[in-house]
What does this fold into?
Amino acid sequence: MPARAAWWALLGLAIGEVAGGVIGALAGAVTGAGSTSALVVLAGELGLWAGMLGACIFVARRYGTGSLRRDFGARFRPADLGWGPLVTVAGLVATAVLSHAFVGTRLSGSNTQLIDGQTHNTAGFAVIAVIVSVGAPIFEELFFRGLVRAALSSRLGPIGAVFAQAGLFGLAHLNPTSGLGNVEVVVVIGAFGVLLGLAAQLTGRLAAGMIGHGLYNLLVTVAILTR
It folds into this structure.
């Protein structure tokens, strides 16, 4: 996979962000709901995921075999059921340690506001839980650990690509309302992105990362609900 494929990845991400914003705004206008409404969030995520998936399909056909399975490792083996939880545990430990380092500083922040907004809305919480524990892991792993990592490996090498895609993964989660708190958001999510990238590199597949990513998000979501 040539390094220039990464530019197509960035274009797909940008298109997805725009599409998500437009679709989310339309959903809000039709339903009269605010931006934190679960249905509005879902509409926006569908637009974002469409851009990310579209980039993966386009790059696979233009530079690869046309198969997401062969080109990006979008496949599963039973061993991934063991790898996935290990990734989750490692992610929880690493992010907890890093988050603790930011406590009491101006750089402390989070990106859990959408989940917080559903605390007293059972249906909304269920929709958000599905988004973050099923949809996001599938499309984010395919895009960042699949497409972006594969494209950057030809220029930066396997380990360099793992860290580079993790940095982009963290930056993709910038929260406009966090201000300086975005520093913690980028660092913590980027660190988890490193672990997910290593899982993809070691196994040669995305399934372990999808499982680990999904379990991690689900546990964090439940913890926010029950705190």
In short: The radius of gyration is 17 Å. The chain has one domain: 5-226. The helical segments are 5-31, 38-63, 68-72, 80-102, 113-116, 122-171, 182-203, 207-226. Residues 5-226 form one domain.
